[in-house]
Amino acid sequence: MPTALPTGRRALLLLPALLLACSEPPAPPPADPRPVRVVTVEPRAGGEVVSLTGTIQAETEASLGFRIDGRMTERLVNVGDRVQAGQVIARLDPTNEENNLRAARAALAAAEAQLAEAQNNYWRQAELLRGGWTTRQRYDQASQQRQTARSALDSAQAQANIAENRLGYTELVADASGTVTARGAEPGEVVAPGRMIVRIARQGGLDAVFDVPPVVKDQAPANAAIEVALTLDPAVRTQGRVREVSPSADPATGTFRVRIGLEDPPPALRLGSTVTGRMQLDGGAAITIPAGALTRKDDAPAVWLVDPATQTVALRNIEVLRHDPARVVVGSGLTEGEVVVTAGVQALRPGQKVRLLGAAP
């Protein structure tokens, strides 16, 4: 049978175990600084080339519509058709206008007959007055009737001219050569005066149309030469000048619509083609960082900055003027000499220690 240990000896044996259980677990070793690539902010000289994407549109577009109302019986052109000046575009039912013209011509014939009768009566009264066979009163009445008949004839002639013009208005005629870009009514519809039947892009000039950010608009030099190239084939290119700038910004995008008048555009630049415009901006300092440095904070563009003293990172919002797949032009938020993380931005957290690649550990 085993012999029981004395109480004091048993306590001495349990003491190391109790001390081990009461001690705190050792602290984990500090995490190694995360390696990152950085770039030092340096303002870049002005004169930067900016590229924007736009479309080719006609210099002048006209919406053609009938001057009178009526039921459209035929539309002779469709979208994409080329039309010539004087070509008939569409027709209205002419029945009512033909009847109005016949009525006006009949009224004109009656007015001519009344004037002829009034003229004869006037000359007769004039001869009788010279021979003393009539009174001055009858002569004056004949003169007044002749004048009234002459005025009635003028009115009837004007009504006949109006009726004839309205009959001509039943045919919609192109006033200039061009290409049909849109249609607004179909045969069989009753159309109101002025309603767009077709829209025609007139020949004689092409514009490259761009939506330009405010900062680019403000930095653009006066009467700048702009190179416009076909996006699908950059070898197709031409030069242009600013022809029109919208005075107000688009409420949705905040950009300004700018139309560039093209000089001798090649045939490959067709209506609706997507083009790229390049322009040299005026001088002025600008900060440029790699596109990989850009991240977001509070739904706004931001970058990670490195504190050289503590080797820790912090997130800061910036204003982006423009960007492309390779770089970002910063409007505000960065100053010269600050260090920006360009690689590894998605794995950082505020206050985290980092190690700059290429620097001593």
TrEMBL record:
Species in which this protein is naturally found: Falsiroseomonas bella
Record carries keyword tRNA processing: no
One Gene Ontology term, aspect cellular component: efflux pump complex
Record's keyword annotation contains Signal: yes
Coiled-coil ranges (or none): 101-166
Residue ranges of domain CusB-like beta-barrel in the record: 211-279
Multidrug resistance protein MdtA-like C-terminal permuted SH3 domain sequence ranges: 286-346
Family: Belongs to the membrane fusion protein (MFP) (TC 8.A.1) family.
Protein name per UniProt: Efflux transporter periplasmic adaptor subunit
Signal peptide: 1-27
Superkingdom of the source species: Bacteria
Molecular function in Gene Ontology: efflux transmembrane transporter activity
UniProt keyword terms in alphabetical order: Coiled coil, Signal
SUPFAM superfamilies, sorted: HlyD-like secretion proteins
